[in-house]
Amino acid sequence: MRDLDETDLEILSLLAANARRPFSEIGERVGLSGPAVSDRVTRLEESGVIEGFTLDVDRTMLRAGVPVMIDLEFAAAEAASTDGVDPLDAARERARDADAVEHIFVTAEGDLRVYARVEGRNVREWVRRLFDGVPVADYAVTLVDEFEWTPSIEGVEFALTCAECSNTVDSEGETTRIDGEVYHFCCPSCLSRFQERYRRLEDGV
């Protein structure tokens, strides 16, 4: 896959500030014609860097639930779920499917950290239900007083991440499309592992 150049990053920055900005206006800012900007945006969409133009709703303004940070530690690898799925993968899938979860992080130690806004007062009961059946060794719930999320797409802070291991994907990485979705990988090994696990899930193994 090709590297993102400075013009790509500037276009992304302008779209992030205002997704309705006309391509002609962006072109004036980056030194390209409107059609040339359109072509670049199309390539960014096809490569999965841009996944549509959506509303960015700040849930903190809506006060939708109690903001919490949940840290989960998992049992030893041999204590995997009964269906053979790795505990971390199983917990991450549960978190992805939960409407209350806004951000998911995986630590270098293989633990899971989840930021969520949970309805109701019994947060621990919500956590218990969400991860029921997943061999969690221990977990901690922290009430969040203030939260600030300031992702950047300037310079080196913008990077694609591997769908398998979450490492940064560089120009030597791999890109593939599975069932209409574009996935990026840092190396062929990660691509192979992802495809194998995907096939097992499809086959119900």
From TrEMBL:
Keywords: DNA-binding, Transcription, Transcription regulation. It holds the Pfam family HTH_AsnC-type. SUPFAM superfamilies: Winged helix' DNA-binding domain. This is AsnC family transcriptional regulator. Residues 4-67 form the HTH asnC-type domain. GO terms for molecular function: sequence-specific DNA binding. It comes from the Archaea. Gene3D superfamilies: Winged helix-like DNA-binding domain superfamily/Winged helix DNA-binding domain.
